[in-house]
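thought: user wants a sequence for this fold. calling inverse folding tool.
action: design(structure=
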């Protein structure tokens, strides 16, 4: 039996990781349903354009920009499991608001934006705690395998979630389809509640020392020889992704004339690629090193968006669109476990929350800027040109990362 298989077997034997994986999987399925449902709500239910899709996406990530550094400090001061449970249950309850507002005819773009901002604040805390919680469940030498398992379940959700979401939107309407995600968050919270883990006691709730501790997290990332270029490249990646993801639903639904269900099926093709890529992630990282894997996958991401920009009305164009989604899934599936494991392995436990919240906050700041900009420019000059713009941007950030010290990075280089 290979080392990778042995590590995988040990993971499934851990009740803590098993429940964490189950909670993540359940939540992932719901998230893909609500993602397509929210986009369809803006475009179809509220009859808005790409600019409005970008605004809704931007306010979803605005709390990361405003409160990310503070959230990282609070996560490092707190026990992470209770924080995960509370934020999951709260998000589940909050999602019930959307169909209620639609049923009472009070759903508008402004109201939806306020809802997404509140949802984003809860997600900020949950994301920082979740990625910081995993290193407490598994040792460093199993992190790549653990992240790959999480990516595999996420890929399975991506494979069927969008199609299910498109079907539910067509059957129930977009607002009511969001209830599926609400149930998934409640289920996730209840699973996390039963994880056996020993955590340090929480420190007293206080704002004293927050600026100093937040600055420690910033210095850790941006003074590190390999984490700094990785962080900067990822910020650029998220800016390009915000532009591309904002115009894609409009390009598919309006330019190509594909239905909401067809759009979901196309996204599911990306899920198939992500699943295949995630199964290969551990072996690729072990053989080539996480640095080379991440750089190569980011070049492939640029190629995938170029393919999608080439698609057109006819069936052959839809095949090209599907090929682009498949290639995008492959690259992201192989990349994510290697990148995330490197972050987690290189960062001390006491800085995990601040590391995750700091980098994610700036990543989300890129979404706050890129999503509305991509939407408004897409409305002005066309959705296809913006996809080409994003593709070139992806290539630039990939080449910049490849020229840095990170290209030789390996998870095995992490301090014990």
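)
observation: tool returned 416 residues.
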């Amino acid at each position: 039996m290979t080392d990778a298989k042995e590590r995988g077997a040990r993971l499934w034997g851990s009740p803590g990781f098993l429940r964490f994986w189950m909670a993540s999987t359940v939540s992932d399925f719901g998230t893909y349903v609500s993602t397509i449902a929210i986009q369809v709500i803006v475009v179809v239910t509220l009859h808005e354009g790409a600019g409005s899709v970008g605004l809704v996406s931007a306010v979803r990530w605005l709390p990361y920009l405003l409160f990310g550094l503070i959230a990282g400090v609070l996560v490092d001061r707190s026990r992470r499991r209770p924080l995960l449970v509370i934020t999951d249950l709260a998000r589940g309850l909050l999602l019930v608001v959307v169909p209620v507002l639609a049923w009472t005819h009070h759903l508008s773009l402004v109201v939806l934006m306020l809802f997404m901002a509140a949802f984003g604040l809860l997600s900020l805390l949950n994301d920082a705690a979740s990625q910081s919680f995993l290193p407490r469940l598994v040792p460093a030498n199993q992190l790549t395998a653990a992240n790959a398992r999480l990516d595999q379940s996420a890929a399975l959700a991506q494979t069927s979630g969008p199609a299910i979401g498109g079907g539910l939107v067509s059957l129930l309407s977009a607002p009511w389809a969001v209830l599926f995600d609400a149930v998934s968050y409640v289920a996730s919270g209840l699973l996390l509640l039963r994880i056996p883990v020993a955590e340090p006691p929480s420190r007293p709730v206080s704002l004293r020392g927050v600026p100093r501790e937040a600055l420690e997290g910033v210095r850790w990332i941006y003074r590190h020889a390999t984490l700094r270029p990785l962080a900067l490249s990822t910020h650029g990646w998220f800016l390009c992704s915000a532009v591309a993801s904002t115009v894609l639903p409009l390009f598919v639904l309006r330019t190509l004339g594909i239905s909401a269900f067809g759009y979901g099926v196309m996204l599911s093709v990306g899920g198939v690629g992500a699943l295949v890529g995630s199964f290969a992630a551990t072996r690729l990282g072990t053989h080539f090193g996480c640095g080379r894997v991440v750089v190569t996958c980011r070049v492939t991401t640029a190629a995938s968006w170029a393919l999608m920009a080439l698609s057109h009305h006819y069936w052959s164009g839809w095949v090209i669109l599907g090929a682009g989604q498949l290639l995008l899934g492959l690259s992201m599936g192989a990349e994510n476990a290697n990148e995330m494991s490197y972050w987690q392995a290189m960062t001390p436990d006491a800085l995990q929350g601040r590391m995750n919240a700091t980098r994610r906050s700036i990543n989300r700041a890129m979404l706050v800027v890129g999503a509305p900009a991509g939407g408004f420019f897409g409305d002005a000059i066309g959705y296809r040109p913006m996809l080409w713009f994003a593709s070139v941007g992806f290539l630039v950030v990939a080449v910049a990362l490849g020229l840095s010290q990170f290209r030789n990075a390996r998870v095995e280089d992490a301090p014990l």
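thought: summarizing for user.
answer: Here is the designed sequence. The chain has one domain: 3-195+210-413.
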